[in-house]
Write a structure and sequence with these properties.
Strand content: 15-25%
CATH topology: putative 2-phosphosulfolactate phosphatase
CATH superfamily: ComB-like
CATH class: Alpha Beta
Strand order of the largest sheet: 6-2-7-1-8
Low-confidence stretches: none
Largest sheet: 5 strands, parallel
Order of helices and strands: EEHEHEHEHEHEHEHHHHEE
Shape: globular
Length: about 240
């Protein structure tokens, strides 16, 4: 099995996804939020690449069955029901709801993996479940870090490296790593002792602290809080 990784969602336009297991990562915060929403019983989670399209889709949906969620530059857009904080997606808010969701980077990574045999949604919250599913599938794997507006994201890369580390351990090292996957593994090993501290020190983590959202960092740093495996298929994220 070959493991490959891209550092930003923009790189996916130059990457062959066919026949692979795709893994989308946006630790801060889209994939952490998607995993949480699915864990708390939402009916579906639809990633949309722009705020305007999200509003237009909402106009065509049945009132009362949907929630508009997401953020632009970290901030909840006007008229949206919930932002991009996983703490917003508690069971009493999302259970049974169809969530239309837009974010700056994570939704682009999910859509950019189209063409993959399957697309898994990953965060620190479910890394072990993700690694086991990759092994079970037995296909080559492409891990897509969302990045930060085309720039490297420490949080996403460390999460990708954690998944790679788990795959190596569970497969007894029988993995072929691309150069970028090998780099992600090294970055993870440099930070594995303090995931929370890494998120706080990261550039996007500092942005969330400035927005008084440090509680999101604490939540997103929780490793293996769930075994669910959200998949992106037919335009929606669901189990």
């Amino acid at each position: 099995m070959r493991l490959d990784l891209v550092f930003t969602c923009q790189e996916l336009q130059f990457t062959d996804t066919r026949g692979k297991t795709g893994v989308a990562i946006d630790v801060l915060r889209a994939t952490s939020t998607a995993v949480t929403a699915i864990s708390n019983g939402c009916a579906s989670f639809t990633p949309i690449t722009t705020v305007d399209e999200t509003r237009e889709r909402a106009k065509k949906s049945a009132i009362g069955t949907i929630l508009l969620g997401g953020a632009k530059n970290g901030i909840k857009p006007e008229g949206f029901d919930v932002g991009n904080s996983p703490l917003d997606y508690v069971r009493e808010v999302v259970e049974g709801k169809h969530i239309l969701f837009s974010s700056s980077n994570g939704t682009q990574a999910m859509h950019g993996l189209k063409g993959s045999e399957e697309i898994l949604i990953a965060s620190f919250l479910n890394t072990t479940a993700i690694s086991r599913e990759i092994l079970k599938a037995g296909r080559d794997c492409l891990i897509a870090c969302s990045g930060d507006f085309g720039r490297f994201s420490l949080a996403d890369t460390v999460c990708g490296g954690m998944i790679i580390s788990k795959l190596q351990s569970e497969s007894k090292g029988e993995m072929r790593l691309s150069e970028t996957a090998a780099v992600a593994l090294m970055v993870f090993k440099a930070h594995h002792h303090d995931i929370r501290g890494m998120l706080y020190a990261s550039e996007w983590g500092q942005r969330l602290i400035q927005l008084n959202m440090s509680a999101d960092l604490d939540f997103c740093a929780r490793v293996d809080q769930t075994e669910i495996l959200p998949r992106f298929r037919n335009g929606i994220v669901a189990l």
